[in-house]
C-alpha cells in the first residue's frame, strides 16, 4: 500500500509540471523574447540546416558551434594518445592526444554545415 501511495504522489506532482515546458500557443500574448524580436519562423534546408529571413531582407542560418565534436574528439584523442605513448606513466601522450583530438573534432563539426 505504501509503494502505491508513493507512486501516486510522485505521478501527481510530476505530470502537471511537464506541461510548463511547452511553448505558448500562437494566439497568446508575447512576453520576453517573442515580444522583442517577433515570431521567428525557422525553415530547414535539404541537409537539415535551420535558417530564417531577417527583418532586413537577408537570410540567416544557425550553424553548430562544434561543441559535440570538441568533446568526442578530445575523448578519442586521449584514447589514441594513451595507446601510442607506451612508456612511463603515459600522461603526456594522453594530454597531447586529447588536445589534438579536441581541435580536430571541433573543426570537423564546424565544417560540416554550410549556409547558402
UniProtKB/TrEMBL annotation:
Leader sequence segment: 1-22
Membrane topology: Lipid-anchor
Localization (cell): Cell outer membrane
Entries under InterPro entries matching the protein: Gly_zipper_2TM_dom
Glycine zipper 2TM domain ranges (all copies): 69-108
Pfam families from the UniProt entry: Rick_17kDa_Anti
GO terms under cellular component: cell outer membrane
Keywords: Lipoprotein, Signal
Similarity-based family: Belongs to the rickettsiale 17 kDa surface antigen family.
Organism encoding this protein: Novosphingobium kunmingense
Protein name: 17 kDa surface antigen
Amino acid at each position: 500500500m505504501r509503494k502505491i501511495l508513493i507512486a501516486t504522489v510522485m505521478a501527481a506532482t510530476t505530470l502537471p509540471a511537464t506541461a510548463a515546458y511547452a511553448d505558448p500557443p500562437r494566439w497568446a500574448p508575447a512576453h520576453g523574447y517573442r515580444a522583442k524580436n517577433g515570431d521567428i519562423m525557422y525553415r530547414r534546408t535539404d541537409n537539415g540546416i535551420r535558417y530564417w529571413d531577417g527583418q532586413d531582407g537577408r537570410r540567416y542560418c544557425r550553424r553548430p558551434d562544434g561543441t559535440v565534436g570538441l568533446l568526442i574528439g578530445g575523448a578519442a584523442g586521449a584514447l589514441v594518445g594513451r595507446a601510442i605513448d607506451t612508456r612511463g606513466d603515459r600522461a603526456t601522450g594522453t594530454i597531447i592526444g586529447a588536445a589534438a583530438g579536441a581541435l580536430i573534432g571541433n573543426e570537423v563539426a564546424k565544417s560540416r554545415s554550410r549556409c547558402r
